Structure to design on (184 residues):
């Protein structure tokens, strides 16, 4: 008796499931095929002092069609920095593209999202350089003043990074190389 009831329930359930349409994909949204590759700054937290520079490396693969590149900075500057005299310049593969003056608002902690020119990118390895010119002292009347104080720092948190949004290039009919090195 229990077997018969189980069989009837299984039959009814299968008839109901058969009536359901097959799973179908929703229409693709614009930009749905875009992917984002994010790289955090290497070496954990990074600091600049005075006129130092730091470099961060990231990769752009050959099969990517790059849509955008964003540099996401999360940093804090020394609370005694002269914000109208200090600056940071970003360069991509040796070409400067953005400079800013960090402010002392919010105890010097800030977040910036900076678009980078994708025309400066290379396939494979790329270098982002962060060059600081940080000042904490000095008289406005001094023509030549070197500020080598340990007080002039800018600290990048490990939440800083680089985001490359891209689509994959279509596969081409590239030939396959056999084990002996000749094309097949």
């Amino acid at each position: 008796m229990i077997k018969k009831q189980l069989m009837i329930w299984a039959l009814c359930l299968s008839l109901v499931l058969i009536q359901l349409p097959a799973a179908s994909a929703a229409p693709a949204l614009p930009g749905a095929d875009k992917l984002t590759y994010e790289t955090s700054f290497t070496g954990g937290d990074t600091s600049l002092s005075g006129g130092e520079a730091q470099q961060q490396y990231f990769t752009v693969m050959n099969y990517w069609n790059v849509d955008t590149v964003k540099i996401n900075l999360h940093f804090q500057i020394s609370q005694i920095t002269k914000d109208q005299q200090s600056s940071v310049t970003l360069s991509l593969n040796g070409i400067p593209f953005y400079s800013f003056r960090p402010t002392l608002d919010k105890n010097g902690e800030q977040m910036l999202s900076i678009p980078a020119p994708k025309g400066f990118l290379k396939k494979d390895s790329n270098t982002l350089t962060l060059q600081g010119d940080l000042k904490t002292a000095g008289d406005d009347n001094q023509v030549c003043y070197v500020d080598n104080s340990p007080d002039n720092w800018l600290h990048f948190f490990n939440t800083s990074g680089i985001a490359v949004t891209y689509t994959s290039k279509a596969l081409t009919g590239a030939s396959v190389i056999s084990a002996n090195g000749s094309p097949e």
Remarks:
- Residues 21-29 have pLDDT under 50 and may be disordered.
- The radius of gyration is 28 Å.
